Automatic annotation (TrEMBL):
Residues 112-129 have a biased composition (Polar residues). This is ZSC20 protein. It holds the Pfam family Myb_DNA-bind_4. InterPro entries: Myb_DNA-bind_4. Residues 7-95 form the Myb/SANT-like DNA-binding domain. Residues 109-129 are annotated as: Disordered. It comes from Hypocryptadius cinnamomeus. It comes from the Eukaryota. The gene is Zscan20_1.
Amino acid sequence: MESGAGKHWTEEEVKALLSVWSEKNIRKQLQGTLRNKGIFIYIAKRLQELGVCRDWKQCRAKYKNLKYEYRTVKYAHNSGDVTKTMKFFHDLDAILRYEPVTQLAAEENGRCSATETQLNTSPTTDSTQ
């Protein structure tokens, strides 16, 4: 189990991951890409240069877990619950606050408000219909 996916990340390993993740080109590539194996292979290689031996699957799993935990704490804080905390919250906030919001606010009729805005500003809606 020493080198398996279940091995715990040390604080230094997480800090190294965050330093690579915080690079502008890495953040850009991770935004909105679903098939990101190549990015995590690159991140794993960068971590090896920093002395952290993790494979791309471990890097992706840690990335997803940190992101989930960050969003959970962020949501709690926005809801007024400041008791919920996590160790690297401020580091993650600096990285993730630049990401666009992936959730769209759904309206009562089931359509997204972003879609509504786009439809209303379309040049074809007022003259051709």
